[in-house]
Amino acid sequence: GLYNCYSCLPQDFETPLGLVKHDAEFIHELAQNHPHELFAEPLPHRSEHTIEFQTVYLQHLLGGRHNFTIVPILCSYAYLMLTDARFTRERKIIEAFVEALRKTCAQQTARGKRVCIIASVDFSHVGPRYGDPNIPDASFLEAVRTADFELLDAIAHVEAARFVTAVARLEDRYRVCGFAPIHTLLSATPAKTGKLLKYEQGLVDDKQSVVSYASAALY
After folding, report:
1. 1: confidence class by pLDDT, cuts 50, 70, 90
2. Number of Cβ atoms within 10 Å of the Cβ of 142
3. 163 and 155 Cβ atoms separated by less than 8 Å
4. CA distances from 9 to 3, 21, 44, 55, 100 (A)
5. Where are the alpha helices (DSSP H) in the chain?
């Protein structure tokens, strides 16, 4: 986890498709708007892959057609930090960051910049690889799907509070590891609605462990 829930890395990213510049202006303004430390924990970026995935995708999608920059931010906090009174410090940091991100996006947009917030996540993690005692069968995976779609419905309606409530009600039974970035996105985006584009459950090992994942667009 991250002590301050968020870690911004003000560096360029290089992939086999070339170099992607970080948006120094956006990052500077975000840091000015956020009252907590954003740059103190760079090391988790070394082993995390979520930003790299989206960087390659953006290069494939936009490369040669539209210039773009990125603002690499890792998000790490559990639903309990929003629902349990013991985590007042973390909750204040999260609320402050969401407000800072919302404000920075508005400031940048007002100056003519087009801003898109991307949450690079996967969803439920089930099976022996993730601590479950049994191999998931069809009925178990259908229960996972039902739980996932409850969360995805909250996402498609851009309802951050309902998303948190749904995860908390299940006590994160299926280990939704993308909770923090999804909550941040839903809380900060100016989008009013959304659409689920694709949902899948992927086999990850020979013990039938499964990770679910989806794509959605908010607008």
Report:
1. confident
2. 12
3. yes
4. 15, 12, 10, 14, 16
5. 24-33, 44-47, 50-62, 80-83, 88-110, 138-156, 160-169, 179-188
CB 29 within 8 A of CB 107: yes
The pTM score is 0.95
Q: Give me the amino acid identity at 72.
A: P
Give the chain's length. 219
CA distance 77 to 112: 32
Instruction: Phi first, then psi: give them for residue 30, nearest 5 degrees.
Output: -60, -45
Instruction: Domain ranges for the chain, please list them.
Output: 1-118, 120-219
The single-letter code of the amino acid at 175 is R
pLDDT digits (tens, 9 = 90+) for 123-174: 999 999 999 999 999 999 999 999 999 999 999 999 999 999 999 999 999 9
CA 212 – CA 114 distance, rounded (Å): 30
The C-alpha atoms of residue 211 and residue 200 are separated, in whole angstroms, by 9
Residue that is written with structure tokens 């996105």 in the block: 185
